[in-house]
Write a structure and sequence with these properties.
Layout (H helix, E strand, L loop, with lengths): L9 H98 L6
Length: about 110
């Protein structure tokens, strides 16, 4: 009998090599995907942190605006109250002589004639 010049399982060796190559490519693709996923998750976390900071600043700005408006409203109320108090003082001061005359007329009706 003669010995064949090629191994009977030569095709099997080639198939194993192809499987190993495919497994390496799969592992490399998985590693690349994991790297991309980690990078995307990091970017998402940064965006979320930035959004939270922007919301915090906006909330602070709104609070500052509300406080400024409240202070302005308080100044307006105090000014209006002071104006009203001055008007009432003027009116009562102006009415005082008339009230005193009326009181005197009630208390001393005979002496006023």
């Amino acid at each position: 009998m003669s010995v064949p010049k090629t191994l009977p399982f030569g095709g099997a060796l080639k198939a194993v090599q192809q499987i190993e190559h495919a497994a390496r490519e799969r592992d490399q693709a998985r590693q690349a995907a994991n790297t991309e996923l980690a990078s995307a998750q990091e970017a998402a976390e940064k965006l979320l942190a930035d959004a939270r900071e922007a919301a915090r600043r906006l909330d602070q700005q709104r609070r500052d605006n509300l406080l400024a408006q409240a202070e302005e409203d308080a100044r307006t109320i105090r000014t209006n109250a002071a104006t009203m108090a001055a008007t009432i003082r003027e009116q009562t001061t102006a009415a005082l002589p008339l009230l005193l005359d009326q009181l005197m007329a009630l208390l001393l009706p005979d002496e006023r004639r």
